[in-house]
Fold:
Amino acid sequence: DQQVKQNSPSLSVQEGRISILNCDYTNSMFDYFLWYKKYPAEGPTFLISISSIKDKNEDGRFTVFLNKSAKHLSLHIVPSQPGDSAVYFCAASAKKGAQKLVFGQGTRLTINP
Amino acid sequence: DTAVSQTPKYLVTQMGNDKSIKCEQNLGHDTMYWYKQDSKKFLKIMFSYNNKELIINETVPNRFSPKSPDKAHLNLHINSLELGDSAVYFCASSHQGTDEAFFGQGTRLTVV
Structure:
């Protein structure tokens, strides 16, 4: 019973274009969401987060959108750069600061020059 | 000066053996975790400790025993290893009350 799902295992985008990574969740108790980025042979690194009281959070080239009614969030990267090639994990928490993250299975993003 | 370091990076061992993975963080965080990434790539929390006290234990078999000698260290000991224990194990840490965790580089455990 996977409560957080990333249905696209991989995504290929041309450099300079927008990358959109999607994430769906089933547990309506989740109210804090995070994105992590992972390079090969490294641990995940925190990228950006959003609380359920917001529908958008922006940090430089990265924007996370949350649609609570659809239980869906997305990460937009614009413009995409070759260094963005990595696996991106969506994670959710039932309460901000609960320190119990539920992760999706990741989407491998490849940025083509 | 690695923030969260875990050793070893790779571990190959036979079924039935006992092994340990060590984790140390130099970030001054209060909370440390162990996550398991299985063959389907899902990262699942196993344990969390806050100031050496066990906070979360996610129905992990009792063959897995975390040990926190101080708040900068959280080691994972696994008894009687089974084939299904093969996975990548990640240690992580965070400030108390925050979800933004810092992860180690992972330990790939292969049980043969």
